[in-house]
Amino acid sequence: MRHIRPPKNQRKKVSKSLIILNKLYKKKYHRNISTIDLNADIAVTEYSGHAEELARASSEYDIIISAGGDGTIAGIINGMNLENQTLGIIPLGTSNSLARSLGIFSFPQAFQLLLKKEAANIDLIECRFSTNRGAFKRLMATSSGIGFIARSAAIANRHFKPVGKHCYVLAGLFATFFQRPFHADIGINGKTPTHMPFTSLMVSNIPYAATVPMFPHADTNDSFLDVVIDKANFLTQTMFNISSVSKTYFYQTKYQDVIPDKVSDITVKLKESASLMLDGEICGSVERVEYRVLPKKLKLFI
Length: 302
Hints:
Layout (H helix, E strand, L loop, with lengths): L16 E5 L4 H9 L5 E5 L5 H7 L6 E6 L1 H8 L8 E6 L5 H5 L5 H10 L2 E13 L2 E7 L2 E5 H13 L6 H9 L8 E5 L5 E2 L4 E5 L21 E5 L3 H12 L19 E14 L2 E21 L1
Parallel strand pairs: 1-2, 1-3, 3-4
Antiparallel strand pairs: 5-6, 5-13, 7-10, 7-12, 8-9, 8-12, 10-11, 12-13
């Protein structure tokens, strides 16, 4: 009997995964990943921005699995089809702040979650920013900021990555010595912007910034942003660092009382350009930043 294939639009789509593996971890993890039965193809990144390109070209897959760190996840989120594809996470990076915030701490645990295929939706953050090179838009699932957090990330990326997961804590110690005030008009929840000088501005969707639990009340699906704005010197920044690392949260930031409990959007118009940290990467000469929450935009296995 001759087998006749049904038309393409009537064929049942087979659920198949694409694992996007950061090239930094290929030598150590490729063999382990390839031996696990996830019904998956594996693509290895070759250069910066390649994870986003691979995700953008992955329409035939229902599931995209990030095997890397927060930077790999960020690239995939900005390239994948958020309406039709589900994200999986294998945390291999330096800090793995998103996986850490979701309670995914180990390689075996990540595989068990992928095999169970129980998905949930979490919020994303849309970040629009302007530089002297033009206007840009990025989606993010972790944290972003100007001032102390951006300086810490820059120092960690440049000098301390070989230390491993503690590199950002060490970088934060050094960044504390270089406090610099930024002047900006900041508007929250669509209200008229107010002039707020600051040394650190952080916006997040998750409890952890790198390996430090800076946002203890953050909820990945509460439809709100978590915001910290502070104007600190060496001593007060050190107090903030200690209170966060120790999870005691005894330090009160300068603007803690004026930031609403529920923030859905925030606009920052800087008087002079500054560096912006986005998911661990640094964008220079930023003049204006706008954040808004995208409720339950990302579907992932947790």
